Amino acid sequence: AMYINEFIKDTYRIKDHEDRNGYLCLDMNENPEGLPEEFVQSVLKKVTPQFLASYPVKEPLIEKLARREGVGKENVSLTNGSDEGIRLVFETFTHPGGRLLTVTPTFEMYQVYGSMFGVKLDTVSFGEDFSIAEEEVLKNIHEDTDLVVLLNPNSPIGTEFSDEAVERIVEKAGKANAVVLIDEAYYPFGVESRIDFCRAHPHVIVLRTFSKLCSMAALRVGYMVGGRECIHLIENAQSTYNVNAVGILFARELLEREDILNTLKENIDQGRDYLVQKLSGQGYTFYGSKGNYLLIKPFRAPGEICRELRENKILIKTYRKGLLKDWLRVTLGSKEIMRQFWEAFYKAEGCQA
What we know:
The protein is α/β, with parallel strands linked by helices. 40% of the residues lie in helices and 16% in strands.
């Protein structure tokens, strides 16, 4: 029989490629409205046949990001969304039988890649009050820990660690020769960046994406910032042209438009304020001062709410088990989008709301 990698064979994946066309998508933390039409059209004019016939050139975007983050270009690597960034970190800095430490609940791909690369998973759980004990994180960094993942902020519970906690975790990970990956997919919503830690600690990598705030999830552009040695190793592991030229072009053009970036952020903040006001007014329990989502505890079963909203062409995220089984997560959009959600949600809650 052919050789099959046991870790790959035993990895459980849920492939979610349903066609969400025609739905208001508030389930995966993309921007429900996207970039301004005029901006998209102006950039598309540059996508000529000649442009498409050439291999992607990464340097100009890397230089732009390095300047923006105040690091050298040898400290930045482009990835095919932050998803590939995560995979590259596993490929480069973990080994079968090594250990990964993260919190739970969190982004499911950490568990998936852990399984795929034969890494043992250590998790620190959020408490019933949705707090996380940093002492528990520290206690779970062992001699055989390869990788510690911190999320800034974490989804779906929008929390972050204090600077002091990050400092202590980074220090202990350093003693264990573990790499610390700080996932900033939801930066800059409500959190300060941790990129400063990369300057002082060669074993810290910060991961970013153009999928959330920048509203380019379809184009798969992400990047990592880290010490020269770590980034060099990541680049060794990368495929040659891992990020496509259209994605690079859009990212470069968008970074020239601070006005658009500010508007994107303001829209989400206004949407959040609107929804928070509505939820507070009706006595809901919810979380989400950080990130571009709110975690809400509905009065009815989340599954029922989800089904009714789906019939109204609105998608949200629910959880099957554990700490979050009574909760739902909704992606934030502009005030207008949140009004559409609220009206449908309120109706789905029936007279109990």
